[in-house]
């Protein structure tokens, strides 16, 4: 079908890959838990747009350029690691503030102002985009399921990419609606919110370190 071979194996592998935790899914879950379904889908849209750009770049051959040019790969890699670190620091600072104010009355009117400055679409988009390993992954994974004799390999990439986005949509939707169920508990229990935010910040620092140590 459109030059795609061994589709059941591709779908099985795709499900496993989508279910692996990463900075994108963690950020979407965090936004949904703090700000609700609409903001969660705004962040998810950033992830989908970022992944679409990476898939397009992969099909266009940018992956080969990153593999061949260590300097370019390093620039993108460290830019992405730096951005993840910046997000992690922001989360840890927010967790510290929540912990310090855990016994204070809730400031309902201050939260929307801070939330409005977050711009979840932009953050999720940048997190997705500054990941050179994702471009290499898309090529390495997709190419296994493209018929080398098919006359239009770009169409095969489109089919594989569309299936990947559908799987991502279903998974992130589950995270978003699960995250909103956590929101009420976070609002009632500031210690729980501070602990969860600290854990998310620590995970983002881990993602930053992992990305900075990655090789082409």
From TrEMBL:
Q: Which UniProt keywords apply?
A: Cell membrane, Membrane, Transmembrane, Transmembrane helix
Q: Does the keyword Disulfide bond apply?
A: no
Look up and give the membrane topology term.
Answer: Multi-pass membrane protein
Indicate the transmembrane segments per the record: 12-33, 45-66, 72-92, 124-146, 152-180, 192-213
Q: Which superkingdom is the protein from? A: Bacteria
Q: Which Pfam families does the entry mention?
A: LysE
Give the residue range of the signal peptide: none
**Which family is it part of?**
Belongs to the Rht family.
Q: Provide the protein name.
A: Leucine efflux protein LeuE
């Amino acid at each position: 079908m459109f030059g795609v071979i061994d589709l059941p194996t591709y779908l099985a592998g795709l499900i496993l890959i989508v279910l692996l935790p990463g900075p994108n899914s963690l950020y979407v879950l965090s936004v949904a838990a703090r700000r609700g379904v609409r903001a969660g889908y705004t962040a998810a849209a950033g992830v989908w747009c970022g992944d679409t750009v990476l898939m397009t770049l992969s099909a266009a051959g940018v992956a080969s350029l990153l593999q061949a040019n260590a300097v370019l790969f390093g620039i993108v890699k460290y830019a992405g690691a730096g951005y993840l670190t910046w997000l992690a620091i922001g989360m840890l600072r927010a967790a510290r503030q929540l912990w310090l104010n855990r016994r204070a009355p809730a400031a309902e009117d201050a939260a929307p102002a801070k939330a409005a400055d977050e711009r979840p679409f932009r953050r999720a988009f940048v997190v997705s985009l500054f990941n050179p390993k994702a471009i290499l992954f898309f090529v390495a994974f997709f190419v296994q399921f493209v018929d080398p004799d098919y006359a239009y390999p770009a169409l095969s990439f489109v089919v594989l990419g569309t299936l990947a986005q559908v799987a991502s949509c279903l998974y992130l939707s589950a995270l978003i609606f699960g995250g909103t169920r956590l929101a009420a508990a976070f609002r009632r229990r500031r210690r729980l919110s501070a602990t969860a935010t600290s854990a998310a910040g620590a995970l983002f620092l881990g993602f930053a370190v992992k990305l900075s140590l990655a090789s082409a």
